[in-house]
Amino acid sequence: MTDVTIVNVTLPTLGREFDVAPSALSAIAVGYLASLAVVIPASGWVGDRFGGRRTLLVAIALFTIASMLCGFATSFGELVAFRVLQGVGGGLLTPTGMAMLFRAFPPNERVRASGILIIPTAFAPALGPVLGGLLVTDLSWRWVFFVNLPIGVFALLFGLAFLPRDGEASADRFDLPGFLLSAAGFGLVIVGVSEGPERGWGSPLILAALVVGAGLLAALVVQQLRASAPLLHLRLFADRLFRSTNVVMFLATSAFLGTLYIVALFYQDGLGLSALNSGLSTFPEAIGVMIGSQVASRVLYPAFGPRRIMVGGLLGVGTMAAVMALVGADTNLWWMRLAMFGLGYTMSHVFVPTQAAAFARISPAETGRASTLFNAQRQLGGAVGVAVLSTALAAVGTTRVVDGRTAPDLTSYHVALLVAAGLALVGAVAALTIHDVDAERTRVRRVRTRPAREVGAGQTA
Fold first, then answer.
1. Least confident range of 181-185, 238-242, 250-254, 443-447
2. Is residue 453 situated within a structural domain?
3. C-alpha distances in Å from residue 355, one per residue of 14, 98, 248, 294, 349
4. Residues linked to residue 172 through DSSP beta bridges, in sequence order
């Protein structure tokens, strides 16, 4: 997850290294995202067919090897190709790992597991710009990819030593028509929404990608509902809790990742901060997540259930984005950092209960396929959020002419942040459709017991 944001810091350097125009650099990010979108739908079947442990370890190995190849790339074409290979490993990694995790814990312990899982989930995007800025400034752009090698090797050895052996693998036959439709449909939609703000939504290429992609996804829904052994178990959305939590996660991810993307541009292009200073000023978000996730999982969720926590968290995310829209060129930067802390703290109150509640009524046998759906829509939500906010940014314009000189127009960033606040508010409305009773199995209320001496004294009296 760090890899998604760490590379963004290096794009200007890569443009100079390979003599590539800024508009073409997006292929590095889009190739990775499109590859994720293609592979994620098949991850549930792969995990069921070959076992979670084996699939997870192969995904880690593939991601690590692809990272090494990216670091040794000698041309822009090679780098994009190896990023696509990275996406294949990443697309298998997250859904398989999440499915294994939620199979390992009974429902009443999943909120605690989610409280731990959320730390890397939201910590990683904030760490990427800091780490990327340090590596590019002090070493080389190649170390942005080489840094994955020791982590990948350690994860692989740790997994070989400690991950439990897979039981008997079982899966239906592979749904090839479903895979082809999902790969082409999700891939085209991701490319369309990722490139739309840059190329323009009226571009024939973008329109073709979105229209054809949407048509293929519509055909996918029809085919999957008719298939005897579908690749994507869309009927899982018949469960109202799973359906509602997926809608909330889509909107929350759109608002959150869109905000992080805009803030990075706001810091560097709007306020003129260096890449490293920008990353450090984003980092308070990670601290907020670390603190907030523990409060949400240990204190609030057992007492209040998911619905009220999600609504409050999304209202908080919207408020923090709106507060950032008030920051100007002369505003003390610590106000922005405080808002970033608040963004992370409130967002953890969305991620923790959503992940814990989403699988509350999903059987162990269906957990792998449910994880596939959950991660596919979350991936799409992030891409849509960045696209929507980038479009708002471009519509206003990021520069203006002052006394014959081009200067940043902070109004564009403010408008984009207000759009993010709007997405969060829509998510809060969607969270109202969640019924706490559906997630009752995931709640564990702690009952304080009196010391044995007190109990004995009371009984004697």
1. 443-447
2. no
3. 36, 10, 11, 14, 11
4. none
Which structural domain range is residue 400 located in?
2-174+231-446
> What is the helix (H) or strand (E) element at residue 394, kind and residue range?
helix 367-396
Q: How is residue 441 annotated by DSSP?
A: G
In DSSP terms, 407 is beta-bridged to 400
Cβ pair 393, 197 in contact under 8 A? yes
Q: For position 446, what pLDDT does the model report?
A: 52
Neighbours of 243 (CB within 10 A): 15
Q: What are phi and psi of 229, to 5 degrees?
A: -135, 75
Compute the half-sphere exposure of residue 11: CA atoms within 13 Å on the CB side of its CA: 19
Structural contact between residues 221 and 287, judged by C-beta atoms closer than 8 angstroms? no
Q: How many Å apart are CA 388 and CA 266, to the nearest integer?
A: 16
- Write the CATH number for 330: 1.20.1250.20
| Cα 112 off chain centre by | 20
User: For residue 200, is it left (φ>0), alpha (ψ between -120 and 50) or beta?
Assistant: left
Instruction: Write the single-letter amino acid at 310.
Output: M
200 inside domain:
no
Q: Are 335 and 327 in contact (CB under 8 A)?
A: yes
Total structural domains in the chain?
A: 1
- Quickly state the pLDDT bin for 458 (edges 50, 70, 90): very low
Structural domain contains residue 137: yes
Q: Of 118-127, 309-318, 325-334, which range is least confident?
A: 118-127
User: Cα angle at 342 between 247 and 384, to 5 degrees?
Assistant: 35
Q: List alpha helices for 266-366, DSSP H.
A: 275-282, 284-295, 301-304, 306-324, 333-358
Higher pLDDT, 138 or 323: 323
Closest CA to 155 of 100, 97, 69, 73: 97
pTM score of the predicted model: 0.80
Between CA 56 and CA 374 the distance in angstroms is 17
Q: Identify whether 129 is part of a domain.
A: yes
Q: pLDDT higher for 33 or 239?
A: 239
Average of per-residue pLDDT values in the chain: 82
pLDDT in tens, 99-155: 788 778 777 777 777 777 777 776 776 777 777 777 877 788 888 889 889 989 999
Place of tokens 């992080």: 260
Compare 426 and 190 and report the one with higher pLDDT. 426
| DSSP string of 209-240, one letter each residue | HHHHHHHHHHHHHHHHHH-SS-SS-GGGGGSH
Render 412-438 in DSSP notation, one character per residue. Answer: HHHHHHHHHHHHHHHHHHHHTT--GGG
CB 231 within 8 A of CB 182: yes
